[in-house]
Specification:
Oligomer: single chain
CATH superfamily of the largest domain: Vaccinia Virus protein VP39
Largest sheet: 7 strands, mixed
CATH architecture of the largest domain: 3-Layer(aba) Sandwich
Distance between the termini: 34 Å
Structural class: alpha/beta
Helix content: 25-40%
Shape: globular
Length: 332
């Protein structure tokens, strides 16, 4: 998934190697927490090399994705048969996505082609039906729902985020949605996934390594990915405005008026020996502020690397192609 702030490339080397250089090469007895998990890339990187991964995010779509990729760790029998049945189900025409986010439904919005909107509704309704009838386990439920979110995102008619849709269907949005299983890593360890405010959850959990990747700027993830939450929750509401926005969570990390106090409280209450904060040079908190806060609670260090910036629109001008990604380190 093309995701704002994704650490996919940084997890190829920079993040895991930095953490190992500080915490030791053998992490098999360590509890690792990814407190602002997003699509779970960092947690997945440490899933098979640590004792336990704790993943959390305020957004429900992220919770669904991490319930699959992080918490699921034992193979689910016959899961491909369920994928095949969903792909071959007769399309419905009265679903919420088709009616509100496709031209054939409301005649207003075009986040998906008419076919794909109907396909999303069909699959989502059937997954819910299976759940209500206890035909599928919770593990299978999140596996199927995660699969739908990822495959729907691939055919969305947007420039990456859901703050707006494109006037005409782009080439990828014209392709028919085909459900593909979101396969996860198998291992013997149990993991835990939460859908809570990070500053509240931190008071109730503990471990060895805490990785933090909070929002850097004023962009609210609940608004940018509102349609993924709509598919994941699949509850009726009245879409607002041209983009069909829903009510969404607003993070205090996205406001210059609240971010410093929120971050200070988080570090203060963190019951973890090692804390790593990913942040970049375009964030609301400058390095000097982060250093000042983290240094109050232990030994502070800093490493950085150049990183290609996220682009929701490749035609944007006057934007630097790269940014500096900082990894702030605290040993409490």
């Amino acid at each position: 998934m093309n995701y704002i702030g994704s650490k996919f490339k940084l997890c190829q080397n920079f993040i895991p190697e930095t953490i190992k250089s500080v915490c030791g090469r053998d992490l098999s007895k360590k509890v690792f927490c990814d407190l602002f998990a997003g699509t779970g890339i960092v947690g997945r990187t440490f899933k098979t090399i640590t004792k336990k991964v704790i993943a959390n995010d305020l957004e429900y779509y992220s919770y669904v994705i991490n319930k699959n990729y992080i918490e699921n760790h034992i193979d689910i029998p016959n899961k491909k048969e369920y994928i095949d049945e969903l792909n071959n189900s007769k399309l419905v025409s009265n679903g919420f996505i088709y009616k509100n986010y496709c031209l054939g439904g409301s005649g207003e919005r075009q986040f998906f082609s008419d076919y794909n909107g109907k396909k999303i509704d069909t699959i989502r309704k059937k997954i819910n039906c299976w759940k209500e009838r206890l035909k599928i386990s919770q593990n299978l439920y999140f596996y199927l729902l995660c699969s739908l979110l990822e495959c729907a995102d691939k055919v969305a008619n947007t420039a990456s985020v859901y703050g707006a849709y494109l006037k005409h269907l782009k080439s990828s949005a014209k392709k028919d949605l085909v459900l593909v299983g979101a396969d996860y890593q198998i291992n013997e360890n149990d993991h835990a996934v939460y859908n809570e405010d990070a500053n509240e959850l931190i008071k109730r959990i503990e471990g060895d390594i805490l990785y933090l990747d909070p929002p850097y700027n004023s962009r609210q993830y609940g608004a940018n990915y509102h349609l993924l939450n709509t598919i994941a929750e699949y509850q009726t509401f009245t879409p607002k405005g041209k983009t069909g926005l829903r009510d969404y969570n607003k993070s205090k990390y996205c406001s210059s008026n609240t971010v410093k106090e929120e971050f200070d409280s988080l570090i203060k209450n963190a019951n973890f020996k090692y804390i790593f904060l990913s942040y970049n040079n375009e964030g609301l908190m400058p390095c000097s502020v982060i250093k000042s806060i983290m240094s109050k609670y232990g030994h502070y260090d800093l490493v950085h690397t150049d990183y290609q910036r996220f682009k929701a629109d490749s035609n944007r001008v006057n934007k630097a192609n790269s940014t500096v990604e900082y990894l702030h380190i605290l040993e409490k």
